[in-house]
Amino acid sequence: DSGVTQTPKHLITATGQRVTLRCSPRSGDLSVYWYQQSLDQGLQFLIQYYNGEERAKGNILERFSAQQFPDLHSELNLSSLELGDSALYFCASGGGNIQYFGAGTRLSVL
Amino acid sequence: QQPVQSPQAVILREGEDAVINCSSSKALYSVHWYRQKHGEAPIFLMILLKGGEQKGHDKISASFNEKKQQSSLYLTASQLSYSGTYFCGTEIRIKAAGNKLTFGGGTRVLVKP
């Protein structure tokens, strides 16, 4: 158990809808990272937050947004969902160089 | 840019050795190695910082050649539990970029009895 908690584990929704994925980092970690992993694909970095502030941005679509709250948990909001957004979404947290991954949220867009 | 991993896949018999390579076109600050079982979270194996020091984790070790921007992961006397997909993540230390990792496409390893 990495200590990073992601909810929900599975999410099934329809095209055009909006969903929110939640991540609670390990105790003491200030950084939260979001990744997308499509079927049999590598990990694509989306965005990083550090102590509530956006720190780095990757290939995150405009339809996607994230934030980190004062208690350091983070949410990834995905809107106007398309079939191609179906993927595993991982959150990772870290306090230094190492990133520890949560179990992921599997999103299925039908 | 995404680092390039090779090979894409490897099949081993228990007890055999394998090497996985990770190459980048950019100067690297660090290389991270993760292993992921199907449908599970990537698990951190080790991190190599600039300096070329070899690290080890059980019978899995890695090296980092910063001049060549390459890292290699060595699976020695492989065990069934080594099966999974191995990812390298590279970090380019640019202040404005945070410490984000760019992952390679992965190397699938299957260890057979």
SSE pattern of chain A, N- to C-terminal: EEEEEEEEEEE
User: Structural class of the helices, strands and pairings of chain A?
Assistant: mainly beta
Intertermini distance of chain A? 31 Å
The general outline of chain A is: globular
Mean pLDDT of chain B: 88
Alpha-carbon Rg of chain B, integer? 14 Å
Structural class of chain B: mainly beta
Q: Can you tell me the residue ranges of chain B where pLDDT is under 50 for at least 5 consecutive residues?
A: none
Estimated share of beta-strand residues of chain B: over 45%
Major sheet description of chain B: 6 strands, mixed
Q: What share of residues are in beta strands of chain A? A: over 45%
Mean pLDDT of chain A, to the nearest integer, reads: 93
Tally of helical segments of chain A: 0
Number of strands of chain A: 11
Describe the protein:
The complex is a heterodimer of chains A (110) and B (113). In chain A, strands 2, 4, 5, 6, 9, 10 and 11 form a seven-stranded mixed β-sheet that branches. In chain A, strands 1-3-8-7 form a four-stranded antiparallel β-sheet, with no helix packed on it. Chain A is globular and about 35 Å long. The mean pLDDT of chain A is 93. Chain A has strands at residues 5-7, 10-13, 19-24, 31-37, 44-50, 53-57, 64-68, 74-78, 87-94, 100-101, 105-109. By secondary structure, chain A is mainly beta. Chain A starts with a strand and ends with a strand. In chain A, strand 9 and strand 10 (100-101) form a beta hairpin. Chain B has 113 residues and is mainly β. Helix content of chain B is 0%, strand content 52%. In chain B, strands 2, 4, 5, 9, 10 and 11 form a six-stranded mixed β-sheet that branches. In chain B, a hairpin with a 2-residue loop joins strand 6 (55-57) and strand 7. The radius of gyration of chain B is 14 Å and the shape is globular. Chain B starts with a strand and ends with a strand. The model of chain B has no long low-confidence stretch (mean pLDDT 88). The interface between A and B is medium-sized, with 25 and 26 residues.
